[in-house]
Amino acid sequence: MKILVLNSGSSSLKFDVWETSPSMIADSSDLLLAQGAVERVTNMEDALTSVFRKLHQMPVDAVGHRIVHGGDRYQTSVLIDDQVEAGINALSVLAPLHNPHNLAGVRAARRYLPGLPHVAVFDTAFHHTLPMHAYAYGLPWSYLTEKGIRRYGFHGISHRYVSWRFAEHHGRKRADYKLITCHLGNGCSVCAIEYGKSIDTSMGFTPLEGLLMGTRAGDVDAGAILHLIMHEQQAPADVLKLLNSQSGLRGLSGVSNDMRDVLAKAKTGDERATLAVETFCYRVRKYIGAYMAAMDGADALIFTGGIGENSAEIRARVCEKLGHIGIHLDKASNTANSREDRQIGKGPVEVWVVPTEEELLIARDTLRCILKIPHE
Ligand code: ADP
Asked: Which CATH number is associated with domain 172-353?
């Protein structure tokens, strides 16, 4: 089956076309037929027209959509009908920077390709197994049960994909392992996966919580935010912008949101860039330690995302002080130039780099929804 995978953002529409089938999934022989993006999108239907122009009118059988927030309503990927579309819309209040754009893509694609099945694959769904003690904040009970103020977690598609790949390399099931997966890209999160289930992750109610990211602050005391609003008279909308797009590597270093630039500047001895890199690595290390505690150890630590896949230096700095918990990087394999899945530390906790392939997982889930076969 040929699946068009759409990832619609605030101003861009990324697309992949994958050929997949149950037997191709079984031996990992799914084929990427096309890939591209339309930038500076103002009208999603026009953008789709240019996608099909780029695809030379290649016929597809179904469409898989990446949706950032599924709340606690969507615990797995689902076929989209009007009710699901309304559900994604209702969740826009929880993810105002993402869901409205995802939804615009869904609406335009359903109008443009009305005869095809459309499937929603959620970034939150993999984390629906979080136990209550991991997703509850220490707020009054009604805020959890009535207002839905809780931790949801994101990047679930990536954490799920790389943990599945790790198990596949061992000829086993994800359910056989305790894994810590680090997705370090523009957005960054760590996930604790205990015997196949996500039991904790660093992002929370929104993708703002946890690690330091390209432009997002990660963990900040809520009191500091209140201070800015109440005593510094900053408007909530400005604070939202501050935390989402002016903070993180960019804000601390004053250089860039791109780790390559920040590392280069740090090498010149720049104090702020050095601090940004150290804060970034320190936070990842702290979460790894926390998740070792949460799971009473781990079988493997997996790096993915643009930074996790490409920066031997960041991986080495993250793992620097983790020897006492069984994490030892092999210097030669860590620095080897490769784009493949690879082991970079022997143990007792194996360390791996697994390039993420979120679009492939979206294509596979789309197929599984249509054929009504269980999700892995
Ligand atoms: P997104 O989260 O938007 O999908 P990616 O996962 O592609 O982004 O990660 C993009 C980030 O990866 C860039 O901003 C850059 O910081 C980082 N990156 C890519 N290559 C390298 C590298 N060789 N060294 C350090 N960082 C890198």
From this structure: 3.30.420.40
